[in-house]
Amino acid sequence: MIKSIFDSYGTPILVVAFIVLFLLESRFQLRKRVQGRWKRVFINFMVSIPAFLLLRLLLIPAMVWLAIENQSWQIGLNYLLDAPAIVSMLITFLLLDYSNYLWHILLHKLPILWRFHLVHHCDLDLDITTAFRFHFGEMIGSVIFRGAAIVLIGASPLMVLIYEIVFEAATQFHHSNIKIPFRLEKALNFLIVTPRMHGIHHSVFKKETDSNYSIIFSFWDRIHRTVRLNVHQHEIVTGVPSYADENELTIGRLLKLPFTKIRPWSALLSRSPDKESKEGLGKLKK
User: Fold this and answer.
1) Is residue 207 in some structural domain?
2) What is the pLDDT of residues 16-26, one digit of tens each?
3) In the chain, at which end, N or C, are there fewer CB atoms within 10 A of the end residue's CB?
4) Domain residues for 192?
5) pLDDT in tens, 97-121
6) Could you tell me the pTM of the whole model?
7) Structural domain contains residue 36
8) Structurally, how many domains does the chain consist of?
9) How far is it, in rounded angstroms, from Cα 67 to Cα 73?
């Protein structure tokens, strides 16, 4: 099933999506870069190799196996509801996305998880290659959480694979540095996470990083009041302030970073009081 769906359809879709977004962000740049692009491409892809291998050889097989086994266990919401197939698929997709919203919050709030997720956030630029810059330790941890979510939701193996393909494509899209026409992006952002929205999440200001956790659908942040849109893109400084030295962010140091003493988030001045008082209530800014 993985070979016939994820490998045969998902992988070509994701490769084409990457090429298109990479070319578009080269031509239509949203935020100015602070590092050499090709050096970052090399570093981010080298860091991502162990995570890529674990994704294909551990995470996806484990999730599909659990979904298959659960067809005999019949644990989870969908087995309780006994809804029509199309309704069951819709519920599964929404709840899988909601579970990843919750997982993303845990990555930021639990110190043991943050030390791994930090590798993703200490990138000094934000573009499509950041979408692959995840530490392999984070991938291992996600197997437990996402596997439990699949069982509790009662997700079918097919929906697990379909969601994973859309999840990976959405991650590429909202990490990209592509400048979408503003009115179009505002319209898209009512439903899905867009580059401007996710760019705020990668800010060096802690209150901005602690917002916009959604992966595919943006309304999870609105429902839980973790949305923050009232930041202009030219005001965003990307990264983690205590890891702002480019010379420290080498491949070897990034891979061993979670196993070292993690520095506290440096104290930076907040943005203007007016914006702080309107946290999460603003509209998407250019």
Assistant:
1) yes
2) 999 999 999 99
3) C
4) 2-31+44-277
5) 999 999 999 999 999 999 999 999 9
6) 0.94
7) no
8) 1
9) 10
